[in-house]
Design goal:
Layout lengths: L10 H14 L12 H8 L3 H15 L2
Length: 64
Amino acid sequence: MRKRTPKGEANKYIVRSHLMSELGNGKYQIGSRLPTEMELAKQFNISRAQVHWAVRQLELAGQQ
């Protein structure tokens, strides 16, 4: 079942927060793969571009 986000919500921030939470709770281990951008886009019913932005923000945060 797809998660639907309320209209007006900044979807890319929701995805970023979701991934940060799952990384923090240990769902994904170091070196493991995240779901693909297309899988996340379908899961959150948003564009792949928004998912790409969210993943890129996590990458940049990890480099600091």
